[in-house]
Give the backbone structure.
Amino acid sequence: MGTQYQGPLPVLQPESDFYWEKAKAHELWLRKCVDCNKAYFYPRDFCPKCGNYNVTWIRASGRGTLYTFAIVERAPIPSFRDSVPFIVAMVDLEEGPRFPTNIVGVNAKPENLSIGMEVEVTFRDLNDEVTLPLFKPVSNEFPDRH
Amino acid sequence: MKKNLSKTAAIVGVAESNELGTVPGKSALALHAEAASNALADAGVERDEVDGLLTAGYWNYDLADYLGIKPRYTDTTTVGGASFVIHVGHAVSAIAAGLCEVALITHGQSGRNTRAPMPRDPNVPSAMYEIPYGMIGMPINYSMAATRYMHLYGEDRTRQAMAEIAVATRKWAQMNPKASMRDPMSFDDYHNSRWISWPFHLLDCCLVTDAGAAVVVTSKERAQSLSKKPVWILGHSEYHDHAGISTMEDLTITPARVTGPEALSMAGVSHKDIGLSMIYDSFTYTVLASLESLGYCKPGEGPDFVANQRTAPGGNFPLNTSGGGLSYTHPGMYGIFLIVEAVRQLRGEAGERQVPDLNLSLVNGTGGALSATGTIILGVD
């Protein structure tokens, strides 16, 4: 990478260390409640639906559909000035949870995105400590992709 | 079971800071203090009578110390811009319970000229899982909600509705000498304004100003002893159901789906009785989603509801007559300014923009990423 990542980094918490360790290995993992049998995001050591601590980790398939998106044209902070325009989005994961992310692998124009389109996980190593799960379109039907 | 405290307390004083807009010479606390003095003067209440203090974004003893007030009742409920509307309900409860007699709600914020912005807690989950992706600041968060709305109800009619709201709100601001943005705005101006975060143009987004405001709430008995007409708090409700935008279940339905009906029910009135709606307009989209969530119309009907400049001066649905967060002022947390305008209108003090024959107003504050709402119903005899 050479230069140090200038953007905002997450402050990792003990309950999410496992999530970020797996992301570094380019795997997406989710917490799942054993009692409800439902996966949830973001990770914490109890199920936010039923309150039980009887929870486990599962590896997500990495597939989902686009729930919504926006195209950021004005950088919210200076470290994003070289990144605009970029796509912020939420993806409904196959396992159920909704996941905040960026869509990459496609030019950041509204006509290149459609809600409900299939997307799959990809990973970006921000530095030695943090890797962000991102998503990209599955199909080639959007010609503007680069 | 919530007790019905309708008309047990009244708003008796409202004011802004001496200046609004670009005020580099005043700190946020100085804006609080000016607004507090002005609101107490408006009420005709002495400083030393204040025994309840409510604000958002501070440890309350810092503010109380600065103002020189030693409150017996203190409340720093901080849920973004909705906070101050919620504080009104809390003041009613505190007064009804005998915890205080004169409650002062204040806000001051140097959105433009602060020397040290309020830090955001990096330990909260929304910071950990949203901010690294550039989901920073409300234009980006709310624009994702608007995209979802467009998907469900049609892009063109949603766009038209957002334009209607921006243009209508500017027309009200042109009649408010305190409004920051008073130049005429055409539909072309709206459509041609630059993108901030698609689908939001610049003119979908609220202002960023320096401003303070304060509200004085007191008991029915004390209110009736003062010279100005009491503005009764007839209903109040608060609710929040998520924090960051990514944990909001349905991006098109705000917590106002709970607070609107509950506040109206406490007041014993319905939507058609409301003569003035003051609805937090952090973005044009916030108004659209709020109108539907409050129950003025059904989901997806908002674009028809605001069509043909219905919310503008001369329309039959007066909305955000101060010029709103979009064109009047918006220092960061704006909710208290909704109350200031509603009270002025109900007292008949709104000058050129006065809504005629007004006796009931609904105020709906929204905070965070559409996370929290407070709704109050205000009325005059």
Summary: The radius of gyration of chain B is 19 Å. The mean pLDDT of chain B is 97. The CA atoms of residues 257 and 295 of chain B lie 7 Å apart.
